[in-house]
Amino acid sequence: MLKTIFRFGLIIAALLILFELSKASLFIPELSSDVIIALSGAVFVGLGIYVGLKLRKERIVEVTAPVAIDHEQVKTLGLSEREMEVLQLIAEGFSNKEVAEKLFLSESTIKTHVSNLFVKLDVKRRAQAVTKAKALRIIHA
Amino acid sequence: MLKTIFRFGLIIAALLILFELSKASLFIPELSSDVIIALSGAVFVGLGIYVGLKLRKERIVEVTAPVAIDHEQVKTLGLSEREMEVLQLIAEGFSNKEVAEKLFLSESTIKTHVSNLFVKLDVKRRAQAVTKAKALRIIHA
DNA sequence: ACTATTTTGGTACTAAAGTATGAGTGCTAA
DNA sequence: TTAGCACTCATACTTTAGTACCAAAATAGT
Predict the structure, then answer these.
(1) Contact A34/B23, CB-based, under 8 Å?
(2) Integer Cα distance of A117 and A110 in angstroms
């Protein structure tokens, strides 16, 4: 979020600078208004393309190989055994209720585990947790 | 491809029109040069962002394609282009709302796509869809 | 030009998922 | 023995997800 604010701040700053430059240019008699508008238009388009491409970057995904589980990573994140079990089942697409049944626990307990997992993995949703867990190689592909 | 050419044609046409409009505006005394430049700048930035986002689609394939997507599988399942886009974003852990924002669509539309995806993939939940889609190699790991 | 499909969007629900908070149990290391 | 941690479960919400049904556009293909 801060990053986004920073970027937009930069963009606004750039806009202001260009704006001032354009104004100044208007008083240089050698340049016709045509040229000025064309130039500023080109610059603004470039700026827009830059912004558009920046927006793209957030979509790039890490690709992971189907390899062994990184137990170091698990330790570092402080994931408990139960949490790992729950995470694995969630990654297989089971609902909280189904996970609860498989592990002979109440749905409440699963929700607690899942919430704790989200904090430790720094995610907001289970699908995100699954993707991150696979990227970190803490569950089977 | 024709679509792309057509769109870029439109963009160029729009640029020319705006260009002419901007020139004409210079001779309307009510509008200060400040306003004109600001407006045209904003419009050009918008155009640039549009172009940038269009470029994005082609690029992301290059960046995230180390694991080949099984296009045969995609055809067999009858998944449309839009559905694939939505599926990919869901696999990255985004909520329906977030996907809607990224694709400039309403959440309703995303829900429709997601529901259709579930039928085609024969799953009940998004996490399950993600796991199955990865297993079938129809999205990037 | 005319279909078939895709894409988009809406309303109205129901069902899951997720958050916040509290609390009891049991195990273990200081 | 007690402080800390893992595990369990509950209540009470709020928020997303998902289903069902419908319908208007935009596109693609013939």
Answers:
(1) yes
(2) 10
